[in-house]
Structures are given as C-alpha cells and as structure tokens.
Amino acid sequence: MHSTASDGALSPAELVARAAEASIRYLALTDHDTLAGLNEARVEAVRQGIQFIPGVELTCRWHKRTLHLLGLGIDPEYEGWREYEARLQRLREQRAETIAFKLRGKRAPDDILERARTHAGRGQIGRPHFARALLEAGVVSTENEAFDRYLGQGKVGDVKAEWPDVAEAIAIVQASGGKAILAHPTKYRMTFSRLRLLLSALAEAGADGFEIGYPGISQDYIRLLLKQAEVLDMQVSSGSDFHNPEHHWTGLGRFPRVETSRHLIHQFYTDMPL
Ligand code: AMP
Ligand code: MN
C-alpha cells in the first residue's frame, strides 16, 4: 500500500487505521522510493494489532525499461538506505523539473511544478502529483486523462531518469533483510515472451519472486505467472497496490484470489517473526 510519503492519498497512520477497520491482518507499506512513512505506520499498526511488513517500491531499470521492485520485510534502519533514498530523491527532483518544462510546452500553466510540489507535500514527487496538478489547473478533467494525454508511457511527460539498475535494487533490498519482489509484472507493456525473459533474468540476478495477485490482472495471467514461478523456483506475492479511497478500481486489501503454496505470505507466517 501507498501513503502520502509517496503518491498515496492517506497518511501512514490513517492508512493503517482504515486497514484495521477493514479487518486487514497483514499490511505492507511500500511507498515509491522512500521509507519515510514506515515509522508512523509501524506505531499505528502496533496500536491496531496489525502485522506490519516494512516495505518499499523501488524504481529501477532493466535495459531501457523502468521497473518497480518491491522490498518486503526490509530493515528501515539499514545504513545503506540513507544514501540510496537520497539518490532517488535527487533523480525524482531533477525529473520533476524536466516534466514541468515539457508540460509547460503543452497547455500547462507556468506554475505547474509548484502545484505538483504542493500535491507531493513532503513526500516523493512523481507523475501522479503532476496528474493532480493538471486536473486542478483545468488542463484535463480527470487524472486518468492526464496520464492518457500527457504523462503515460510514451507521452511528453513520461520523462526517463537514470534509475538504478534492477541488480542494485535487489542488492539493497536483500542487504537490508527484505525479499526482492518484482511488482505487477503485467503492467510494463511487455509481450509475454519479453516478460518471461525478464523473469528469468531476475531469477538469475537472485530476486526472490514476483507479484501475481494485484488489481487488474486476469486469472489467465495469474496461471501463466504461477507456472513461471514454478519453473524458475521463485516465490509469489499479492497486494492491493492501494493508493487512494477515491480510486474505485482498487480497494483496501483487495486483490484477486490466488491459490498456491508458493505464496510469500506463508513465508511470513512461518519463517519471519514480525
Ligand atoms: P512515477 O513513479 O512518478 O513514474 O509514477 C508512477 C505511478 O503513476 C504509478 O505507480 C501509478 O500509480 C501511476 N500511473 C502510472 N501510469 C498510469 C496511468 N496510465 N494511469 C494512471 N496512473 C498511472
Ligand atoms: Mn508500482
């Protein structure tokens, strides 16, 4: 799940409190490129009696593609995180300036960067904050339209950055005691054969597994990915990727059901005291 530490709508404590209301028992906070929400979430999780899994969703690169790598069960105090987070923050800040410059060349107002920064607050700035800024400025009438026309893959605001290589992301997650899990494999617009290549490259690189149960994935794809997990001897994970109560296509703790013994939650139950 995501909080205001990155592009989520709820503060870490609010998120955990709502999760408790929804009877969620296991919650991983996985903000994009930041651990800033983890302490607050952990305190509230203890208060609410929820098992808290400290996490992060790292933006990284595989050849020319941008990927999201989840770190689940990381130690936020691991010393390497400070520099790694600072590096990602610099990249996001530089990228935001470029995005703003490009959007100004379209129909965005001059203060688009300031508006996006306001939406990001003290959290990591990203394209969703620009989507909100474009909506607020009346350039588009929904955040989805902002992605469709300006921010989505291949559009003017889809600015690439020199994200760390996926091997670096795997390394820091595992060095800090976490499981390195590829987030939402079907959301990178790859053909299935390319995706298979990616999954075996990740297995080769020592990643622990990949997500298979998340909003938007079909049961057919779940089956295909499960097969790959067996072949590659990797673990699988599920999550709601929850960002915002107003996004009706994702619900707190809601994701497609997956029946398998490979599931990471079993690992957390059995060999990870939380
Ligand atoms: P960033 O990390 O700044 O590149 O922003 C990536 C985030 O933007 C993703 O985690 C999604 O939450 C959101 N996003 C990306 N593409 C779309 C899209 N086509 N429509 C809506 N949201 C999107
Ligand atoms: Mn993601």
Q: Overview of this structure, please?
A:
With 274 residues, this protein is of the alpha/beta class. Helices cover 43% and strands 14% of the residues. It has ten helices and six strands; from the N terminus they run αβαββαααααβαβαβα. It has helices spanning 12-21, 38-48, 80-104, 112-120, 127-136, 143-151, 166-175, 192-204, 219-232, 264-271, and strands at residues 26-29, 51-62, 65-72, 179-182, 209-213, 235-238. The chain has a six-stranded mixed beta sheet with strand order 1-2-3-4-5-6. Residues 270-274 have low confidence and may be disordered. It binds adenosine monophosphate and manganese (II) ion. The site of adenosine monophosphate has 10 residues, from helix 5 and helix 6.
If helices are DSSP runs of H or I spanning 4 or more residues, what is the number of helices?
10
**Strand numbers in spatial order across the main sheet:** 1-2-3-4-5-6
Structural class: alpha/beta
* N-to-C CA distance: 18 Å
Largest sheet features? 6 strands, mixed
Low-confidence stretches are 270-274
Estimate the global geometry from the Cα principal axes.
Answer: globular
Helix content: 40-55%
How big a fraction of the residues is strand?
5-15%
- Element order: H for helix, E for strand: HEHEEHHHHHEHEHEH
How confident is the prediction overall: mean pLDDT? 94
Kindly provide the radius of gyration, computed on alpha-carbon positions and rounded to a whole number of angstroms: 18 Å
What's the total count of β strands? 6
Identify the bound ligands. Answer: adenosine monophosphate, manganese (II) ion
